[in-house]
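SEVERITY: medium
COMPONENT: batch folding queue
REPORTER: lab tech (J.R.)

DESCRIPTION
The queue accepted two submissions in a row. Attaching both inputs and their returned structure tokens so the on-call engineer can compare them side by side.

ATTACHMENT 1
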Amino acid sequence: MKRRTVFKVMAVSALPTLGKLGGRGTLGAFGSLGAFSLSARAHEADAQRIYINEEEWFDRLSYLQYSILVMGETEDPGSSELLTEQRPGVYKCIGCDLDLFRSEWKFDSNTGWPSFWDAIPGHLEEIRVGLGLLGPVEYRCARCGGHHGHVFNDGPQPTGRRYCSNGAVLVFTPDQG
């Protein structure tokens, strides 16, 4: 069976449970299901929104990448090779190649996921998931709508924020020169 067919079967079989995920499902970003969030805020979005159909996602991504970027899942802590990346460069969305973070904003949060204290303005959307003001804040790529992680208010200064990222859906590009 082709990888794309396996993904489709898995995605379709997961649809009945998406409403029970408490905001973790993100298919709403891709146009087929309603979003589970109650509010959304884009950071002065300057990224032109694109829509990628399901077949294209299946062709572009591994199962792990699809489960994170499209379904809103989380990779295992400590599993990302990007945890130890220390070169100067930029971290991009694997779904659409949009720059999201600069390496100088990366820090070791001791959480097991790559973490950043700032993001490139206009390149992320923040979405409060769950009910009320106490729910977690998910962030997605402002161009393709792909889920990347959650943002918390326990990071270092100057922002005090921690963008907790799934490294499997980031691509690191080292600076040239």
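ATTACHMENT 2
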Amino acid sequence: MSKVAFLFPGQGAQAVGMGRTLVETLPAARLVYEEAAHILNYNLAELCFQGPEAKLNATAISQPAIFVTSLAAVEALRVSDPDAIDRASATAGLSLGEYTALVYAGALTFQDGLRVVQRRGEAMQAAADAVPSGMISVLGLDPAKVEELCTQARGSETLEIANLLCPGNIVVSGTQAACEAVERLAGNFGGRTIRLAVAGAFHTTLMRPADQQLADALARVPMQRPRIPVWSNVDAQPHTDPEEIRSLLIRQVLQPVLWEQTMRNLLGAGYDGFYEIGPGRVLAGLLKRVQRRVECHNISA
């Protein structure tokens, strides 16, 4: 029998209209959005369903929006395939998605998880606003070549590897000037670039002091031992100790996301049935770049 792991998307998966079908067809999903509105003190469902796109894409809004929409999609899976819910024995999420994974695994309540995610989004938005910065996907290069590219492009600016997503797809984050240099120079190394629609240089030292603001938020909420291991972005390993998880979440703000290694480690541990739960299909595509033959079901939102 397959070993099943649930995967939850991160920032960038948002799209106007997400969650609408879930709410229209599933009372349990509607309740998720209603509870979120009570906690957030604004109508998140309306922003998800109608936009405007620019507001939904703002970090302080998109992080709670993806978190809530992904958990609404879990409710759809409970109805359509309850056996999958029973068989899942590991979970992971890309950056923000790690919080969704922790709530699914029972380490955080929905209410506490959403409050922390709201604070995380606000803190990261503030850090991004403080220093004009961005993120660039570098395609077609291995990590060593991307390091060389960063060394050449960095100059006196901040530029760091932020996400190792899959073979040939590595995201770098830095100041606007450094990002522009990466775009100019990548072709010299045989790569190409795509500018990501995010507000700042996530998973770099430019996110200070968002890490300490997140630490304060995490200190105010209880965390339980999850019922299944949650694989961390920071070290690509499974964790069940609440204090370890709390520490890793704080480090995650400044450190690169080891998504490719997480997928390789899950595959190496025998996982061969994956579910991407939430808006978009990015994670399934990344997984296929690591292992073409692996099965990944999409529970869309």
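NOTES FROM REPORTER
DSSP finds 14 helices and ten strands in the chain.
No errors were logged for either attachment.
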